[in-house]
Amino acid sequence: xxxxxxxxxxxxxxxxxxxxxxxxxxxxxxxxxxxxxxxxxxxxxxxxxxxxxxxxxxxxxxxxxxxxxxxxxxxxxxxxxxxxxxxxxxxxxxxxxxxxxxxxxxxxxxxxxxxxxxxxxxxxxxxxxxxxxxxxxxxxxxxxxxxxxxxxxxxxxxxxxxxxxxxxxxxxxxxxxxxxxxxxxxxxxxxxxxxxxxxxxxxxxxxxxxxxxxxxxxxxxxxxxxxxxxxxxxxxxxxxxxxxxxxxxxxxxxxxxxxxxxxxxxxxxxxxxxxxxxxxxxxxxxxxxxxxxxxxxxxxxxxxxxxxxxxxxxxxxxxxxxxxxxxxxxxxxxxxxxxxxxxxxxxxxxxxxxxxxxxxxxxxxxxxxxxxxxxxxxxxxxxxxxxxxxxxxxxxxxxxxxxxxxxxxxxxxxxxxxxxxxxxxxxxxxxxxxxxxxxxxxxxxxxxxxxxx
Length: 453
Ligand code: ATP
Description:
- The chain is of the alpha+beta class.
- It contains twelve helices and 26 strands.
- β22 (355-359), α10 and β23 form a beta-alpha-beta unit.
- The longest helix has 20 residues, at 41-60.
- The two termini are 35 Å apart.
- The model has no long low-confidence stretch (mean pLDDT 95).
């Protein structure tokens, strides 16, 4: 079998996502809206598993971080102070030949001449700034005074609520505020499937600290975030840390790392970890006239805290997970002959369905009843799936393709028909090794919970 090229691999991934219900084009029956995606029954599970695990390790397992959930529609004052109204833009160029709108960094250059990447046209307009924020109006009037924005990042509501949260949580520095939610950017060229979308979700942490702790915490959070990606099953070899050079960093940032992943379409950013100094809180203090200072009871000092921000994209993480775990290999069919199989090797923690349960035959009532009993036994602990249709090998294959790590088959041994000692046992199949072991039904919840965690 020849190795598929990266473009072929990506095509197969996009097609699998649609065919099995991970990701669909948004408003598809109306021709679709560019840069917008809907997650199907399996995609939504992967997305939730990613977000829940992020929340678990950052908020629930730590004493120094609390959560919040801010509004999406944002007061223009917030985004003026943060610099987004003035400066959240990309330079845009139009190709006069094919009318494409292009980001300047997408132009190709041949023999020193800039060209349109779509048609090769050289007749390009001058670059102009294009603000990426979506503007809307709040209330019954539609004029300057009613403008609001769909937030382009979740971070700003954290800064704006900093004082309230500090007071109610009674945390001492260093401490963090975490948020997961939608963000919106009118990207000039949405592309590479969900990688660059116009509506996406972010998982952001603002970790506030004393000025002298900033650089050290930047290193700390970079390492913590790498661990996160490894713990959800992304291979370390495909993750890279880019130390963003001075000239590319925001002027207020003293250090930024991009955590990048080797997507089939190239090495691209998954997450930014930035030491943002006291820029955001200072800007909001200045613009709102409200104090956002922290009072240190020990030193009796008052100051604006500094902040380190790990900012990750949910959609990019889901896409990286699908790309990283997608594989094609060989597996035996019911006759023992080897056949091609497609498999998503999701970490059990991330897999949309943890375990599939099959009665060997669908027309044997006792097998079906027992299999449904096992569904009832496992359902309170995890997302399971019952399937009785088709040959058992085909059923395994369908689950392999969506990344279900475990498969349970109820057979005649389970009923004690061949050997009384095997009564109330089932086969437990592992997706990756394809090995089967015989385990007691009553042990299933503990065994599976252990392997998932
Ligand atoms: P890029 O350079 O790729 O546009 P960025 O540096 O502007 O990204 P940030 O503002 O640092 O991105 O946002 C933090 C994270 O939010 C990114 O690392 C990414 O995971 C996610 N993100 C940003 N823009 C998009 C988008 N258009 N679609 C999907 N995810 C996005």
